[in-house]
Backbone:
């Protein structure tokens, strides 16, 4: 997102942070290193000094406490003519004073799903100041990867060339919540009954989670020749695994967060990979995906998941249709498009 804003704004953009390491030439000269203690109010004062010295007029943030102190100190100490844009990825479990202050003082609230927007409206935030902008993807790495055949990518990644690879990319849990990996492992022996050449590939676990997941795989009776767990890898390598696979699985369970508040970057990367997607049917997912570009299964239903995987593996026409449509549709969800849409909304 920072890179997309740098492309759109050029010298009028700064990426702020206490420690920014990047080899991106677009960002290297547009960083604002704001050093200081861990207290948000100290860092806020230093940001405001930088803002004043560089003639900045718009503040865009996702850090609620830092955002609060920047607005508060500016109102009472600096009096700079600033406009504030606050991005929200989940509603607070309990709306506190500083949340309401941020919501009230922000000129625009950027949210990643319409359900977050509706939640804000329910607590009295004017609809006109809320802008829905789902997360996005950078298409360039996928366009480069897709110049290679699946066979070439599998050779590079040491994957079996003759298997039907069913792949999940991501962590085992997020915020303490499972992400459907257990259900996928439970489902996979059923997939093997109809597709003996299927291969389960789980990519992106930390080392502790990798050990737990490998134990679950052994307990499920999945042999080494039919499954593998790959620990955390760089993003470009994870993307290569996506393109090299035959099916990509995104089977989030039904929780309030997953059903209404998430906009997973993985979903957009899956779409860009050109590999067919199997996903659980959740309202947040439905904002982006449909039966035209993905195959839906019920959350929390390993048997249904197994049937869906088998259907996509055996039906080449279906597989080709949904993967091609997903790739066509993802062009609306690049980071550059997202940045441009937000900037247009800010100007209006």
Residues:
């Amino acid at each position: 997102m920072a890179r997309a804003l740098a492309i759109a704004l050029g010298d009028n953009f700064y990426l702020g942070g206490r420690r920014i390491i990047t080899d991106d030439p677009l960002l290297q000269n547009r960083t604002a290193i704001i050093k200081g203690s861990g207290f948000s109010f100290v860092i806020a004062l230093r940001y405001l000094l930088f803002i004043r010295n560089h003639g900045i007029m718009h503040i865009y943030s996702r850090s609620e406490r830092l955002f609060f102190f920047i607005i508060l100190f500016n109102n009472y100490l600096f009096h700079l003519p600033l406009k504030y844009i606050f991005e929200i990825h989940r509603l607070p479990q309990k709306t506190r004073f500083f949340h309401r202050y941020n919501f009230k003082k922000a000129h625009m609230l950027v949210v990643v799903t319409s359900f977050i927007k509706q939640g804000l409206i329910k607590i009295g935030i004017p609809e006109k100041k809320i802008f829905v902008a789902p997360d996005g993807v950078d298409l360039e790495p996928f366009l480069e990867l897709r110049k290679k055949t699946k066979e070439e990518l599998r050779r590079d990644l040491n994957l079996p060339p003759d298997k039907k690879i069913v792949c999940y990319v991501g962590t085992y849990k997020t915020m303490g919540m499972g992400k459907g990996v257990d259900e996928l492992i439970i489902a996979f022996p059923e997939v093997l009954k109809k597709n003996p050449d299927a291969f389960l590939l789980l990519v992106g676990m930390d080392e502790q989670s990798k050990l737990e997941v490998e134990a679950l795989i052994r307990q499920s009776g999945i042999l080494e020749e039919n499954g593998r767990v790959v620990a955390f890898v760089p993003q470009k390598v994870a993307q290569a695994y996506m393109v090299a696979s035959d099916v990509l699985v995104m089977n989030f369970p039904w929780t309030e967060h997953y059903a209404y508040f998430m906009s997973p970057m993985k979903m957009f990367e899956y779409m860009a990979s050109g590999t067919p997607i199997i996903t659980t049917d959740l309202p947040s997912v439905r904002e982006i995906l449909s039966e035209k570009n993905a195959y839906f299964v019920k959350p929390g239903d390993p048997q249904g998941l197994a049937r869906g995987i088998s259907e996509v593996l055996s039906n080449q026409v279906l597989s080709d249709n949904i993967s091609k449509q997903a790739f066509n549709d993802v062009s609306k969800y690049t980071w550059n498009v997202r940045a441009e849409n937000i900037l247009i909304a800010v100007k209006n």
